[in-house]
Design goal:
The complex is a heterodimer of chains A (368) and B (372).
Chain A: H1 11-22, H2 26-38, H3 42-66, H4 72-114, H5 121-137, H6 139-160, H7 181-194, H8 201-204, H9 212-240, H10 243-246, H11 252-256, H12 268-297, H13 304-322, H14 326-367
Chain B: H1 2-15, E1 27-29, E2 32-37, E3 43-54, E4 59-70, H2 74-82, E5 88-90, E6 96-100, H3 101-105, H4 109-117, E7 126-131, H5 134-138, H6 151-161, H7 170-178, E8 185-192, E9 197-207, E10 210-217, H8 221-227, E11 236-240, E12 252-269, E13 273-288, H9 299-323, H10 331-338, H11 340-344, H12 348-351, E14 356-367
Parallel strand pairs in B: 1-5, 2-6, 6-7, 7-8, 13-14
Antiparallel strand pairs in B: 2-3, 3-4, 8-9, 9-10, 11-12, 12-13
The chains are: A mainly alpha (368), B alpha/beta (372).
């Protein structure tokens, strides 16, 4: 990635990268997860979670502003010092790996259940892995171009969701305010985690052209688009299924399209699922890219190609283990849930606070 | 060397094609299925498989094949059917699912669970209850029909257009089965004319997922569906306005509903726990008025009489759905939605029968036709 630093992506490309890396597996199961956490109030917690995620985006953008020209690992090093910084960098490597594994196994499970029950699941992993590797092999500028190109799918897919409105009943949003406080907190944290790719801004934003004001605007705008898209899917699936039925349906968005009939396509759910693989691929590619960049920082950057392959082999191996049965997948998911908090919430907050110290530091040095 | 390797790799990926497929030629598609319980309470599945023989001028006469098998569950019965077929039977394109009265009165959910669980199956099938044996209804094949397999589906579809039945499929009733305080209705059918035809009989009232044994009779379905905010392409109501006029037809009037608005509002009340108002405004055209003296001065009286008779009919409908304990208006869900505290005090299964549901029907006669 040596030539990455002089090639920068444009603002709109950054926005598209951000949107595409956010929307992954969550979009399909978010309504059910939210409903389990906060009942019929799930969509309210999503709005609150969306607002909080904007605060985090602002913090990330501010932190990056304080360390011009440095990416996540540079920032970690300058904030925590070399020793702790590289440990933190390595743990981010683990985090990105775990998320990538989570995305890959969830993708495999879904495709296996819905579309290709007889294809061995490792083959599905390899297919996604190959396309993701090919996307990130060309560096950030290529990723940006591919992701921008695929952005069309978002608009297409969201218009197909409208079929679900045919049987929607507004009464299913009522009663409001029945969830307990802990239900609300659960719902809000689920929503923030579903928008947790703001961590990736640390990797993309330093390589974006434009002033900090523009970057901030684009990052917030992209975050809002993703949050609104989530809200849209959640509202549609809540009004389509009653609350009792929603508990039994892990992928409500696909499920409600099972009966949608159009003159052109008989099974819209299958069609949406194939379109969705694009999102699965882009989100997976983003995290794989993150993991690969993190890995490159640990042993004094050697050959890029080895980094990529070793990382993806690791991802593949763990995913195959995860794909053996549902228990292993749940283990991966719960492990990811447990560590997500630290890497998406705690560390960005610490970095944000440290950036103030550093500024003071600078000012003192300047004055003395 | 490298080039060859790349080319081979590309060929392997591109030319291998898809093998995880289910092809049409390998399966027999059941279009209509009938689920019954035998007298010994054993589940019995009958399917209709159409075979289209190709003739010189396009698809020719269709022959149909009936297969019956018993089993513990629908899937077991399915594999028992499979044993007698040269290819695999697949219900993935099922259009109509007929359910025998006896089975419907138990619990239908265990029998349709596979449709919800298996992503290969389509949830689009219409569910209909057959009075008596569903297998018999399925086996009715009128000679005049070009496509015997579409006979029952055709009846149901045409009834939706005339607002006598409603569009229903397994997905639509899914929410109602699971949700409290909300029930559904399904079309009811019966074998008639000594087994030569099948007729549409009205709407079967369900409570949760079992048939209550009570129906909304055919002549009340249109009014009922309009109250429930459903209208097909045409809605026509013939009603008996007067008693004892001679000749007989002059007692009746037929209205064509051009426009309507319906609203169901429920709120807690002291005496009956819940009070529900069903408001229905109809804009109608007089389509048939055998008494023949339809002058402007008669209209106000006719309008009043119509409102009175329709309200009376609506009350009958409400009485029967309350007796059947079928909350088809979703009153319970609406109370739970808007008054969750009040809902907690209710025992809906018991209290629903005693709540007060009042129909308010307003008729606006827009036109009397071109003959005065």
């Amino acid at each position: 990635m040596a030539n990455d630093s002089n090639k920068k992506i444009t603002l709109s490309q950054m926005g598209y990268i951000y949107i595409q890396s956010q929307i992954g597996v969550d979009i399909l199961n978010l309504p059910t997860v939210l409903h389990k956490a906060a009942g019929a109030d799930g969509w309210i917690t999503l709005i609150i979670g969306g607002l909080i995620s904007i605060v985090f985006v602002l913090m990330v953008v501010h932190t990056i502003k304080c360390y011009p020209g440095e990416d996540l690992f540079g920032i970690l090093n300058s904030s925590f010092g070399k020793y702790i910084g590289s440990i933190a960098g390595f743990s981010y490597y683990v985090y990105f790996l775990v998320v990538a594994i989570y995305l890959l196994t969830s993708y495999g499970e879904l495709i296996n259940q819905w579309l290709l029950p007889e294809t061995p699941v490792w083959l599905l992993y390899i297919l996604l892995l190959i396309s993701a590797l090919y996307t990130i092999s060309g560096g950030l500028t290529l990723i940006a171009k591919v992701f921008t190109f695929f952005a069309v799918v978002l608009f297409f897919i969201s218009s197909l969701f409208l079929f679900g409105l045919a049987d929607a009943k507004l009464i299913y949003f009522q009663p409001m305010g029945q969830a307990t406080l802990s239900g609300y907190i659960d719902g809000i944290s689920v929503s923030i985690y579903s928008l947790s790719s703001f961590v990736l801004l640390f990797l993309f934003l330093p390589f974006t052209q434009g002033s900090h004001k523009q970057k901030r605007r684009v990052a917030i705008g992209a975050n809002c688009i993703v949050a609104l898209f989530y809200l849209y899917t959640v509202l549609i699936s809540f009004s389509h299924f009653g609350s009792e039925q929603l508990q039994h349906i892990p992928q409500p968005i696909l499920y409600m399209l099972r009966t949608a009939d159009s003159p052109l396509i008989t099974r819209i759910d299958i069609f949406v699922l194939t379109l969705w693989t694009v999102f699965a691929m882009t989100a997976f590619a983003s995290y794989l890219y993150g993991a690969e960049k993190a890995f490159a920082k640990i042993p004094k950057a050697k050959k890029k190609i080895i980094n990529v392959y070793s990382t993806s082999l690791l991802v593949l191996a763990v995913s195959v283990w995860g794909g053996l049965n549902e228990k292993n997948i749940r283990m991966i998911i719960s492990f990811q849930d447990r560590i997500t908090e630290y890497f998406t919430l705690v560390i960005p907050i610490i970095l944000f606070l440290l950036s103030f110290l550093r500024r003071k530091d600078k000012q003192e040095r300047a004055s003395s | 060397m490298r080039k060859i390797a790349i080319i081979l790799l590309i060929c392997a990926i591109v030319l291998s094609g898809c093998w995880d497929t289910r092809e049409f030629k390998e399966v027999k598609l059941g279009i209509t299925a009938a689920y019954d319980l035998t007298d010994d309470n054993i589940y019995k599945n009958t399917i209709l498989i159409p075979n289209v023989q190709n003739s010189a001028s396009g698809p020719g006469q269709e022959s149909v094949q009936f297969l019956t098998a018993t089993g513990g569950t629908p899937t077991e019965a399915r594999s028992n059917i499979d044993r007698r077929l040269s290819s695999t039977y697949s219900p993935s394109q099922l259009d109509v699912l007929l359910i025998g009265e006896k089975l419907a009165k138990k619990d239908i959910y265990p029998y349709i669970d596979a449709f919800y669980r298996d992503p290969r199956l389509h949830l689009d099938a219409v569910i209909a209850v057959v009075k008596g044996d569903a297998e018999q209804a399925l086996k009715v094949v009128p000679k005049s029909e070009m496509r015997p397999s579409e006979y029952i589906e055709g009846i149901l579809e045409s009834k939706v257009e005339t607002t006598s039945s409603l569009e229903i499929n397994m997905q639509k009733i899914g929410a109602e089965i699971f949700e409290n305080g909300q029930d559904f209705v399904a079309p009811a059918m019966k074998v008639g004319d000594g087994g030569k035809t099948v007729s549409y009989e009205g709407l079967a009232l369900f409570h949760e997922s079992s048939y209550t044994g009570k129906d909304i009779p055919y002549d009340h379905t249109t009014l009922f569906l309009l109250m429930n905010n459903i209208k097909g392409k045409v809605a026509r109501i013939t009603t008996k306005l007067y008693d004892g006029k001679k000749p007989q037809p002059t007692n009746y009037v037929t209205i064509h509903v051009e426009d309507y608005s319906s609203k169901v509002k429920s709120k807690p009340s002291k005496e009956h726990k819940v009070k529900t108002d069903v408001n229905l405004d109809l804009t109608v055209m007089i389509e048939e008025y055998p008494a023949d003296d339809l002058s402007l001065s008669v209209l106000p009286k006719l309008q009043k009489d119509l409102e009175k008779t329709l309200t009376k009919e609506a009350e009958d409908i409400i009485k029967s759905i309350q007796e059947a304990n079928c909350d088809v208006f979703g009153i319970g869900r609406s109370i739970y939605g808007h008054y969750p505290d009040h809902w907690k005090k209710l025992d809906w299964d018991k209290d629903y029968k005693d709540i007060e549901i009042v129909p308010h029907i307003k008729v606006n006669i827009r036109s009397r036709g071109i003959f005065r």
